[in-house]
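Much of our argument rests on the idea that a fold can be written as discrete symbols. The amino acid sequence and the backbone structure tokens for this protein are reproduced below:

___
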Amino acid sequence: MGKSVVVFGLGQFGKSLALNLSVAGADVMAVDRSEDLVSSVAGEVTEAKVADLENADAIKELGIGNMDVAVVAMGSNLTASILSVVISKEEGIPYVIAKCSNERMATILQKTGADKIIYPEAEMGARTARVLTSNDFLDFFNIDENLCVVEMKPHADWIGKSLKQLNLREKYNINVAAVRYRNELHSTFDPNKPLKENSDLLILVERKNLKNLRNLNK
């Protein structure tokens, strides 16, 4: 059984999150004050509800006490964000994530109970910058403050050699977590099988070791 998640706010970020969580198997309640936005996801999530998120009683009436996670996705509405965080905690939701547009908002929401603060626009900018400034990176994701996932083509010198031969963990302090071949992602693969040019590697790497990947061509 997947996690149950309530998403407050169905702007671009909140809507995308709600839909993707649902596809991934989560039990999703999507909430917004806009009937049009709620209607746009109604057939794709477990529950879609209209509520004035600047009204504490309206949030309490949603019945969110059994949710595993709350995501407060109104990055520009401080009042609605504060109430959603506070009431989520009062109702017993163990983990509350809040989207913020600035540091001041982040400080306030942390003080009111948010367990994690996210800056989607800034994170997307950093991710895009890393991809654009590397000739090898196809994509880049932060897992946490220390660990990253890099998707990249095998270096030219790696083609035709197996992961066992390359010994990437010892040489570069990186771990190949999966191999993508013909648009299919494989988390289990033969370490003795030679890498092909048209395959992609998903690599787990600590931030401090990113330079090892950037310096492959130097």
The two ends are 48 Å apart (CA to CA). The first strand starts at residue 4 and ends at 8. The chain has two domains: 4-118, 123-214.
